[in-house]
Design goal:
homodimer; about 0% strand; DNA-binding; 9 helices; mainly alpha
DNA sequence: TCATTAATTTAATGACATTCATTTACGGAG
DNA sequence: CTCCGTAAATGAATGTCATTAAATTAATGA
């Protein structure tokens, strides 16, 4: 058998990304073999090379798909912006961490990406593609919104955005590696949520009595 | 040649950790081969297996050594505690990020550690060994110190410690992957430093007029 | 001096990723 | 409808590691 009949054709590329994502729930990127992916898709390993330059390229596609899911979720959340900017910030942080904890291996892959030999330098930075920029713009908008409510006076919104993102990403990352320091006062599971609360408390503390009092 | 003469013996284990750390300045953990390490040490690859169970074991040793350096630096910094708790916090954050940016591959390895097949579950969490605990305790102490100065009233020091660590780790991690969002207002290099400043501004904002006014 | 043990070495082994040459289906031109 | 070029797979190499095995030689202790 060589070329498959039209009625037996499957979208290998799409299926491979899906199946790889699924397989990553159980194994790490390094352990994942092309043969496993091929088997899950229903083809042989070399067939994958018609759709991906190499394994890293496949992993990068999974990585990108992961960001699409993450950002899509965040954008959906932004849709219901009946809530104010401040609470939107909190909701975003919680959603972000939830995503990370629910998709550990995927998240690890997303933030320890395989090297890109595609020649280009910055082309694959998810914060430089459409969805990423939109998501980042959203975060920034929430921050500007907070400033309109009297929070974070005088702060550069871009710097604040990066700081908040750093905090949630850092917390998620440490949690996933079981690097959350143990203590008697807090149990590990809720620690990530408490990071968000703490950050929000910090933001709240910056509020000036001045501007307006909602 | 088989067993080396006593006057030609070298400390393969120590040398391997050193050389691997050095090699990681240029290549990633995945690309690093046992042969490269062996060549740098001055032996053949199989000889390494007399000192490490396998490659992951070697990488974990490098990982642990990295934490020792990181923590040792932090502890040294704590020594000169002529400065107040608040400024100690800032200095710690800056030192942490500097370490990460100066040792990118090592830092990546430290926070994307190889799987431990040593059977044990928690034995290798650097925050559960002596140095890690000491370092963490130090952070906590600085926070409690800040509370004594009126900052962070009513906050659980353990949660605040994890939050601050998350922020600096997250910032370092994002920077290392070139994930720092670009903008006109800030240039990337100083962004990490500005995260620390922002976090410190947050902490400063929590200060209550009440207790004492230094 | 000799047996035992330890630290290396060279020479397998085996798991993958990746490439090659070949096969077979599809789609269009005549 | 047939023939041809192309696309998409396949099974069989290749090559690069990590890891193991067997063989070699030094140190150590009786």
């Amino acid at each position: 058998m060589a070329r498959p009949r039209k009625d037996q054709q499957i979208d290998i590329r799409g299926r491979a990304i899906e199946e790889a994502t699924r397989l990553l729930e159980r194994t790490s990127a390094a352990e994942l073999t092309m043969q496993e992916v091929a088997a899950a898709v229903g083809c042989r390993a070399p067939a994958l090379y018609n759709h991906f330059r190499n394994k890293d390229d496949l992993l990068r596609a999974v990585h990108d798909a992961g960001f699409e899911r993450l950002f899509a979720g965040k954008l959906a959340l932004a849709g219901r912006s009946a809530i104010g900017a401040f609470e939107r910030l909190r909701a975003g942080g919680i959603a972000y961490i939830a995503f990370a904890l629910e998709n550990p291996s995927l998240y690890r892959l997303m933030f320890a990406p395989p090297p890109s030999d595609g020649g280009g330098e910055a082309a694959e930075n998810p914060f430089r593609n459409d969805l990423g920029l939109k998501s980042l713009a959203l975060l920034r908008a929430s921050i500007v919104g907070c400033q309109g409510e009297g929070y974070l006076p005088g702060q550069d919104p871009d710097v604040v955005a990066f700081t908040l993102w750093s905090a949630v990403h850092g917390a998620a990352s440490l949690m996933l590696q079981d690097r959350a320091p143990v203590s008697e006062t807090v149990d590990g599971d809720r620690l990530a949520g408490r990071v968000v609360d703490t950050m929000m408390a910090f933001v709240a503390a910056t509020r000036q009595p001045g501007p307006d009092a909602t």
